[in-house]
Amino acid sequence: MKLYNGQKNHTYEVNYIQVDAKTKKHLQNMGITQGVKIKIMAKLGNHAYVMRIRGSRVALGEAILRQIDVNEVTKEDLGKRGPNNAY
Amino acid sequence: MHIKVALVGNPNCGKTTLFNAYTGAKHKVGNWPGVTVEKKEGLIKHDGKNITLVDLPGIYSISPYSLEEILTREYILNFNPDAIINIVDASNLERNLYLTLQLIELGRPVIIALNMIDVLEERGVSVDIEALSKALNVPVIPVVAVSRKGLTKLLHQVIRSSKHKEDYKPIRIDYGETIENKIQEVASKIHLRTPVNAFLLRWLSIKVLENDHEILSKLRDESIEELPIDHQRHFIENHIPGQEETYEEEIGKRKYEYIESFIEDVLMAKENKPREILSDKIDALVTHPILGIPIFLVMMLLVFTFTFTVGNYFADLFESGIGWFGGWLTRLMIEWNVADWLISLIVDGVISGVGGILIFLPNIAALFIAMSLLEDTGYMARVALIMDKNMSRIGLNGKAVIPLILGFGCTVPAIMTTRSLNNEKDRLITILITPFMSCSARFPIYVLFSRAFFPGREILIAFSLYFLGIVVSIIMALVFRKFMGKSENSGLILELPSYKRPSLKTTGIFVWEKVREYLERAGTIIFVASVVLWFVLEFNFSGKVAMTESLGADLGRLIAPIFTPLGFGDWQAALALIAGVLGKEIVVSSMSVIYGVGEVGLYSALNTIGFTAASAYAFMVFSLLYTPCVATLGVIKSETRSWKWMWFSFGYQLLVAYAVSLFFFQILK
What integer pLDDT is reported at residue B311 of this predicted model? Predict the structure, then answer.
């Protein structure tokens, strides 16, 4: 699924990111890499989401959200706790 | 012994606060050679050693994607600092350490100044300093820049690290067998004219694999043997064999994985602490889908109310002070039998011109205090977020709103912040519309004219002009978007830093820098412009003449007819507008010189040359929109790296100003 279709307060793991090299680098700088866990903290309508990624708060716009492919991480998986959800 | 130290860190990590804590306002501010990125240097003494601190721009990584990133690593590679202080925001540790790992790889001694531990502890998380230091093999010194905690210890460590810089051995991140083999292969092919040490060689090889075009071209120039680089200066192999990922992606990912491998041992969550922290609570309110924009509008209203009320209070004091000073000096010079022409030059030229500008200093200081607070607290990033939807209607993303708001202060730094926009088209459009935002230099014009023609409604008139500037910028953005087409991937990617209590010192130093710039302008360009203007108004080629016969009047008369349809086709207004290209406040200082503050009141003088309410408004509209000042033109040139866009700005703003001003005059008259 796309991150755009994610729900508030749910956590997702990034499968792949389908953007140009420069945008990819920018996302990497924000901590968004393949395999990272992302929690959707808030939604501003359908236009932009605020996310918790590696302990920092990052907002992504719709165009980017539609290009990030993710899998939902269940509560049980979270129980084992990946390092990205430490705080 | 002289020690050079580079200060490096993410944006919003508290770097400026730390730099200010060490150097106060006593630092040199300049530009990096050839570019308009600010360079700050401060000299401090500690334990008998001289230490130069160089404040490098805030960056997320040292890849070659932005000017700031390139400058930072060029500085580290070429100027060979004895140590690097990496300021790390503890409340955002995992992401901040990504830059740290890149700095460590450069092979220079790195010292981590761990900032904002208090914010982290508020969240119920503590940091194991020793574990962090061990994991990265660098010293970690906790600091609280605001209360100066840890600052001395940090300097001790700087001296210690710089003494042993030759023995420094950075940790080595394992990128996995495939990449490690490739790094070795590339390293074996790099044979430079000036040999480098093993750490730097490894770093260069990694950069080659990441297809870092800056490094690739440098290597090509410096290499003895040819590297496997294609004609586009790309390293031939971009992708890892048999995988979809590029080397660059995989190397970045491995760095994060390295951080993940120890971060849990470093950050220790204490139980029973509420997870929701203050920043989250504030965000829930200010980025609320419905309340967000009204809150933003109230904030802007507060900014301007503060600028007008607090600023005006002090401005009135300044004005009477300068008026008194002019009178006192005139009497004194008459007593001393000073020649009439010299009295005229000093009183009508310098004091009128420079003084006419100085009285606005309190308003400008007030505006910059408000701007600085918006930025320092972290609110500005939220504005970008809540405005994203509206900005997308004019084809830009939310980040473009930041230069536009900063444009209310000064267009020059505002245009520089457009660098945060990732898309070149978006950036160009933002650069082209930012000058329409009414900067503080235009404010004196509104005050002068609205006091004369709209007494009691000054604030309303000023607001209408600020609003008009916004409307025109929106229309122009739409026009440009139509011609340039929609840009790809201009989606929003924005970090929302934790809210911070603004530091009095940081705000103070920032505002003082702006006030000093303003004073410097008053003392240099406005002073010279006033003196020159006095001469062209007192003389023509035959000698001293009445003002209406002067060179200045002739020049004004030459172009004045162009402005007749706009309602201000007299030479005085035309001359003031020409002079105003040097800086928009010079429109006012020129008017002051033309009429002389002491003799006839400026306001009644404007009346006598035929200004009416309609033409006064049209004049303000024209001043708001016409050709940006020379400093702005300069920054447009350097930021777009094109004379074409600079001249385009010059010309199209003139046309827009003419059309809009004509429209208003014809309606209002």
Answer: 82
